[in-house]
Please model this.
Amino acid sequence: MKKILAVTVLLFAAISMFPSLSLAKVLTGGGGASEGFYVVVGQGGEVYAWGSDNSDQMGGVCGSDCYNDVYDLGYTATAIDAGAFHTLALQSDGTVDAWGLNAYGEVSGASSMSGVVAVSGGDYFSLALKSDGTVWGWGYNASGQLGDNSTTNRSTPVQTSSLSGVIAISAGGSHSLALKSDGTVWAWGSNGEGQLGDNSTTQRNTPVQVSGLTGIIAIAGGTAHSLALKSDGTVWAWGDNFGGQLGDNSTTDRITPVQVSGLSGITDISGGLYHSLALKSDGTAWAWGANNYGQLGDNSTTLRLTPVQVSGLGGVVEVASGHNHSLSLTSAGIVYKWGYDVYDYGGFGSSQVPVSMSSYLPPVAPICR
Model:
């Protein structure tokens, strides 16, 4: 999602040489990064995390905040994603584990899921994609982000209305995205900044098709903006553009998709609060939008309305955006982080350029999801 996500994070295109590692990180409201946490799945499926644990979103491993170390949570997963204060972990048997804040059933609702192939966490709500191509949601629903034609919070999963043939999902802050096998994108939930891309700012309690998009292979929801990757390697964006996170050389909100300027050969995308990330097929990472905490990684705090290359990174196989920070994974199994780090999580502090976490994390090999 936003981070996030919120976060959230995130659906990624397949990378032919290095299938995606499940790398998720989410930051929340109330000052954003002050409640941040980071989650990584290792080669053997082990789940590592660091950051805030004030709502047990890190599994309660340290009771409050895990500022200066990385923790093995004792969980395993084949894919993972995080919401504002909760974490979702997909198991190899298609069930879902979840932990963290359960204010609206966003955690407890996971226990009844089966046949799941993907998960995504938003602000106090959760999404799951089943192997039959249907989408299910639970948790907070005030903006219709569960897509069940209501605004009723759900402590148990409900099926998103009128969706089939879905191959990817992504939860934004208070909106949701789905990619169908025919290359079209569908969206529902909050739409005040046009993040549903249906040429309106009307909240939708059931899915609507995003205008003018075809040939899409990956999607990513930011807090109040959305991203889509086309099969030709171009990136398209819509919704909130307060920080320039749409990358169209403006700060104008867009209610239909616009092309991100100057990007080609893209294989992965991710949306944060007011910034966005993309991975090129040559292993370089690119970023645009708000940069007040160095979250673009270009050794500055200058807002960028079009993409700039993240400094010093090569061999990247996945990128992930948080509220005001960013992560990447390289083919050597090294995780890098940059941007806001108010509590010095992992002992690294805030940084305007990527910082290696190799001293804290074991080598992390990409795994198939």
About this structure: The chain has one domain: 2-356. The domain at 2-356 is CATH 2.130.10.30 (Methylamine Dehydrogenase; Chain H). The chain has a mean pLDDT of 84. DSSP finds no helices and 28 strands in the chain.
